[in-house]
């Protein structure tokens, strides 16, 4: 082996292995066509360069299996089918090269200590397209953590296609700070959906800056953002004309959504649960400017009365689902107005509206004959009379909650005969129900999937009847003798 001197003549060179008291490897020392090198050995390869200039470095291509990476440091080429001595640079490979060739892995950072040894990682050999599909299952908070792992993950984690939907959850997540970071990363309005839940919150400081940069938002969820006020929400609906889904659950400071008089929103989903400051006038303004509403939830909006409810069927003629649970100022008069929705209404919840009785429920049953779900839990003035009318006029019922209602076996008998497709039934705390009523339900409604008989006078006989005829039914009970 010889080196090229600066004068262009060949000069003899001592083999590096000879300095360590070893001889050059022989043919018998080769393993699967590769030379075996020992710890601390330096592998010298001649490099072509002119005598008057320093060696020039060309692009490097690292090929491991099907994965290829190109850099511009030195001429390296690894292939599992080529000899190792052809591709070894003038570089000390370290002890990790003695294990196997498949364990070679190049990193940008130098090795420090024994734990920095390169290891084979199947995930690193995945194509970018596959990694992006995996990352698509992560939340935005998880993606930001992945971006800190390495340079490749940082590039992939901030791929714009992964940020069309931003999901922030957890009490330790600051919505304002997270939005600021995302806005700094993306100059284009990629984001279309924003979800803040499970304690993640945003304030009036972060929301306006967000909507100015993301006018293409179609879905927004701001659960539990107690610092949000009317001004921010009004700017949200004004700057995002394509907004269809808006969830403001728990925004306790919200009193109204102010909209320009000449403008109509394209919202079809609105959830105002626990917005306890919403009043009748606010509800009138909201439904007037949202004529395309299909889903409207007003749970625990305790200031809403029949005067506000009567505006809902006037302006939202295509409404399919409505909940006024815990709105204890809603009475039979409000149900009479809601019945004007007719056959379009599929879902209705008046749970814990204790002023609702048989009179209002009968009107709803006769006019809204396509009801699929009805919740009258806690309406103690509802009796067998209303349930019998409901069963005859709404045979398509799938779910019914009669908890704490004044219902007996007679009402269950009529329900079982007229609604055989019933899937979910709750009879919790119905003191007048016995095994006979439950047996009627079990025999006629054999597709029943869920039955709640907690705090009822049901014995093992009724329990066995349900298990016999409703094979897949899940029974919720408080009787220890059923086990």
From TrEMBL:
<keyword id="KW-0206">Cytoskeleton</keyword>
<comment type="pathway">
    <text>Protein modification; protein ubiquitination.</text>
</comment>
<dbReference type="Pfam" id="PF12937">
    <property type="entry name" value="F-box-like"/>
</dbReference>
<comment type="similarity">
    <text>Belongs to the FBXL7 family.</text>
</comment>
<dbReference type="Pfam" id="PF13516">
    <property type="entry name" value="LRR_6"/>
</dbReference>
<feature type="domain" description="F-box">
    <location>
        <begin position="120"/>
        <end position="166"/>
    </location>
</feature>
<dbReference type="GO" id="GO:0005813">
    <property type="term" value="C:centrosome"/>
</dbReference>
<dbReference type="InterPro" id="IPR006553">
    <property type="entry name" value="Leu-rich_rpt_Cys-con_subtyp"/>
</dbReference>
<dbReference type="InterPro" id="IPR057207">
    <property type="entry name" value="FBXL15_LRR"/>
</dbReference>
<keyword id="KW-0963">Cytoplasm</keyword>
<keyword id="KW-0833">Ubl conjugation pathway</keyword>
<dbReference type="InterPro" id="IPR032675">
    <property type="entry name" value="LRR_dom_sf"/>
</dbReference>
<dbReference type="GO" id="GO:0019005">
    <property type="term" value="C:SCF ubiquitin ligase complex"/>
</dbReference>
<dbReference type="InterPro" id="IPR001611">
    <property type="entry name" value="Leu-rich_rpt"/>
</dbReference>
<dbReference type="GO" id="GO:0031146">
    <property type="term" value="P:SCF-dependent proteasomal ubiquitin-dependent protein catabolic process"/>
</dbReference>
<dbReference type="Pfam" id="PF25372">
    <property type="entry name" value="DUF7885"/>
</dbReference>
<keyword id="KW-0677">Repeat</keyword>
<protein>
    <recommendedName>
        <fullName>F-box/LRR-repeat protein 7</fullName>
    </recommendedName>
</protein>
<keyword id="KW-0433">Leucine-rich repeat</keyword>
<dbReference type="InterPro" id="IPR001810">
    <property type="entry name" value="F-box_dom"/>
</dbReference>
């Amino acid at each position: 082996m010889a080196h090229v001197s600066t004068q262009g003549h060949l000069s003899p060179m001592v083999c590096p292995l000879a300095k360590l008291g070893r001889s050059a490897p022989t043919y018998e020392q080769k393993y699967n066509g590769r030379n075996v090198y020992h710890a601390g050995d330096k592998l010298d390869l001649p490099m072509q360069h002119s005598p008057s200039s320093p060696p020039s470095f060309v692009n490097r291509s690292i090929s491991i299996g099907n994965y290829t990476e190109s850099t511009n440091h030195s001429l390296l080429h690894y292939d599992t089918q080529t000899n190792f001595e052809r591709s070894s640079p003038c570089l000390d490979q370290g002890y990790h090269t003695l294990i196997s060739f498949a364990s070679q892995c190049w990193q940008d950072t130098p090795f420090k200590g024994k734990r920095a040894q390169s290891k084979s990682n199947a995930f690193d050999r995945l194509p970018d397209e596959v990694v992006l599909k995996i990352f698509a299952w992560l939340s935005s908070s998880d993606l930001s953590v992945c971006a800190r792992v390495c340079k490749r993950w940082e590039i992939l984690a901030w791929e714009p296609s992964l940020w069309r939907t931003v999901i922030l959850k957890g009490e330790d997540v600051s919505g304002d700070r997270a939005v600021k970071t995302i806005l700094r990363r993306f100059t284009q309005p990629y984001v279309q959906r924003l979800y803040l839940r499970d304690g993640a919150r945003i304030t009036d400081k972060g929301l306006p800056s967000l909507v100015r940069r993301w006018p293409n938002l179609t879905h927004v969820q701001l659960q539990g953002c107690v610092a949000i006020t009317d001004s921010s929400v009004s700017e949200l609906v004004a700057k995002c004309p394509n907004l269809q889904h808006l969830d403001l659950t728990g925004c306790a400071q919200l009193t109204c959504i102010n909209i320009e008089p000449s403008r109509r929103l394209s919202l079809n989903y609105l959830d105002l649960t626990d917005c306890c400051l919403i009043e009748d006038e606010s509800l009138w303004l909201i439904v007037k400017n949202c004529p395309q509403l299909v889903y409207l939830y007003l749970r625990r909006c305790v200031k809403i009365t029949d005067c506000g409810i009567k505006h809902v069927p006037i302006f939202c003629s295509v409404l399919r689902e409505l909940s006024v649970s815990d709105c204890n100022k809603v009475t039979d008069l409000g149900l009479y107005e809601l019945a004007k929705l007719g056959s379009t209404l599929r879902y209705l919840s008046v749970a814990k509206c204790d002023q609702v009785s048989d009179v209002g429920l009968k009107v709803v049953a006769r006019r809204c004959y396509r009801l699929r779900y009805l919740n009258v839990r806690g309406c103690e003035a509802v009796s067998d009379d209303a349930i019998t009318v409901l069963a005859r006029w709404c045979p398509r019922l799938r779910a019914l909650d009669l908890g704490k209602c004044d219902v007996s076996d007679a009402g269950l008998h009529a329900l079982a005969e007229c609604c055989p497709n019933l899937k979910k039934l709750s009879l919790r705390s119905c003191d007048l129900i016995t095994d006979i009523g439950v047996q009627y339900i079990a025999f006629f409604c054999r597709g029943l999937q869920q039955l709640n008989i907690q705090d009822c006078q049901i014995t093992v006989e009724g329990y066995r009847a349900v298990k016999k005829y409703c094979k897949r039914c899940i029974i919720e009970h408080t009787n220890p003798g059923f086990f």
